[in-house]
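Section 5.1 Outputs to date
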Amino acid sequence: MEQNITQKPIIEIKGLKKRYRMGVVTGKTLKADWESFWARKRGLPDPNVKIGQERLVGQTFMALNGIDLNVYPGEAVGIIGINGAGKSTMLKLISRITAPTEGEIILRGKIASMLEVGTGFNPELTGRENIYMNGTILGMKKSEIDKKMEEIIEFSECRDFIDTPVKRYSSGMYVKLAFSVAAHLESDIIIMDEVLAVGDVAFQKKCLARMSAAAQEEGKTVLYVSHNMSTIRQLCNRCLVMKEGKIIYDGDVEEAIRVYSEESFRFDMHRTFPQPAAYPKRQEAAVTGIEILDRDNLTCSADEKLKVRFHTKFIQPVEAMSFFVAAKYAGTNIVGTYISQSIRSNMCEDAHVDLTFDLSTFVPGKYFCDIRLVSMSNGKMRYSEEIPAAFGFEISDNAAKGSFIWDIGKWGYNLLPVLETKVDS
């Protein structure tokens, strides 16, 4: 992104690396470590390791592998990537919770960090006492905290419990108070790692509005890690994509989400699922595999239909069962739900259930589909199995011939065209 070159970055990172050793690398005592060291030097077996086991020595994992980054005052920077990409590790290094193996981090301001719910809270202290403690850790004077106290309490929605020990708070109350403290105390940099996932929807909206104001009006810098792309879009004006300890993209938010989708979501034409030796007594059916039929790739035009075969094991006789398939755009937000025609099976058997998907309502992009097997009994629905991200597809163009039907009572809200269903034993 373009920046004022006369302005110094508030966060400056040069050649940052973090290396971890994997597995059990030391004994429980200094004596045991010394014995193991001399045994290795002399080419003898380790006296502190059981027969058939090995101690990992020298095997390392690069959580971060060469990060160069400048962040400027007033920026709201989103950080996205699959689990294990190095996002949280980088925030811990910036927060000085742990030290880098190599490289340099230059900070030109105070940091308020929320790397997990209730970070830095003492569970035995009350909410009010924890506000004072966190403020003191940030380098504020008591008089400065006093000025902000009422504003923090009001924003946190925890007034009735502010003088109660926080060990009695729910996880939602924890995050509300922690966020309120970090957002209102005199810090220059606010660091958040998935903390908004705990709060309710109304509080999330309030938090996002507060963070946007902090960046745009107060000039604070925000670093925000999340897997929720909608909050990344609302809050951030810049986004980083991380993969295997490196930054692979830095720039526009929408382009970053596209890069993330390309890197994260790989579609398979055929999948199998391991099955347990014994199923729960109430489970009526299970999916053992998924196969895409009649095509050699999963890039579709919106005017095409996608035929998917579900290898299904009927564990018990089924009077009425349907497949519920929720389509998620870029693997994040559910855009609509397909429901198959009713399926019946009078005996325990293996069968192929072929479902044909009408894609005419989808805009271009990548989609992942969660599936649920739902049976009806005495007018009540019962879930037999659920598989998240079971299969996916990509829409290459926008025919837009169909339309969504909004139905608040359905899983996923937007009811997509009924699936053409065929069952072969």
